[in-house]
Amino acid sequence: QLQLVELGGGLVQPGGSLKPSCVASGFAFINYSMSWLRQAPGKEREFVATIATTGSRANYSYSARGRFRISKDNEKKTEYLQMSNLKPEDTTVYYCNARYVAAADEHWGQGTQVTVSS
């Protein structure tokens, strides 16, 4: 069964860290570039970070650069987002995305809530 399951969200104080993960099953993970996006209520989904199929290249949004680090473990079929120096404005639901451009195939996880509050 094809699935993307996000784990590891939660509540953290400002300045703290979290490392949500996204575990894939049911498709050839190694062929997919992986991304994290986030969406607050009433707002459009916002790009956070993306990483190439091999994990060799990554890009970040302006707000994420220098604080977040995306990684991809093809053996474990898992994507990670190491988030540091978290701010209250980072509070929202984070979604993982898998995209295989050559096959026009794309999958989404169910989302994980991240709350930054004192």
Architecture overview:
The protein is mainly beta and 118 residues long. Helix content is 0%, strand content 50%. The strands form two sheets. Strands 2, 4, 5, 6, 9, 10 and 11 form a seven-stranded mixed sheet that branches. The chain is globular and about 40 Å long. The model has no long low-confidence stretch (mean pLDDT 95).
Gap between N and C termini, in Å?
39 Å
* Strand/helix succession: EEEEEEEEEEE
Strand tally is 11
Percentage of residues assigned to helices? under 10%
- Rg (C-alpha, Å): 14 Å
Descriptive terms for the model:
globular; 4-stranded antiparallel β-sheet; 7-stranded mixed β-sheet; mainly beta
Could you give the topology of this structure?
Layout lengths: L2 E5 L2 E3 L8 E5 L7 E7 L6 E6 L6 E3 L7 E6 L4 E6 L8 E9 L4 E4 L3 E5 L2
Write a compact overview of the structure shown:
By secondary structure, this protein is mostly beta strands. Helices cover 0% and strands 50% of the residues. Strands 2, 4, 5, 6, 9, 10 and 11 form a seven-stranded mixed beta sheet that branches. Strands 1-3-8-7 form a four-stranded antiparallel beta sheet, with no helix packed on it.
